[in-house]
Amino acid sequence: MVAIIDYDAGNIKSVEKAIQRLGQEAVVTRDADLLRGADHIILPGVGAFGDAMGKLKRYELIPVIHEVIDRGTPFLAICLGLQLLFEESEESPGVPGLGIFKGSIRRIPDTEGLKIPQIGWNSLHFPRESRLFRGCNEETFVYFVHSYYLKAADESIVSAETEYGITIHAAVEKENVFACQFHPEKSSEVGLHMLENFLDIRRA
Asked: What is the mean pLDDT of residues 112-123?
């Protein structure tokens, strides 16, 4: 069973439909016992960093997220979900993130000819091998919607990068935790392939 964490964030339904399209059972939930029993967990999200952390706290999901990650459950964070895994965001000064990884979320700098937020398709570069991107070609195009980007403190966890005026850490991977700034559930067949790769990963 794939558990999709429900904390009133946007984009949950499209993730649920993508998992179902792959023939897997998807449950949208904030129930701690269901999350503990899941084979895979996805933390999606579209919205503001501070608001999202407030809702995770209100629904008492923060300790559960740490617990399932520590237990080795395959965990995938998408878009805002990726940002929440880190320590802080310029979008919401003073609001701590989950702190699973070290690094900060920064606003994409203004660059002539580029609109913020970045909305649309952009290509990925893979600086190292990743289980999530197995079978994906270099310069694969995926769909982004974001105004803030990740700057990871430990670049060894960065599994994909993209260029949008600057180099953006577009995905990370460490042990059982995977995260991408882009939306695999909105990235056509290549995105479904990435989700399928994630579902093939077993508990550590």
From this structure: 95
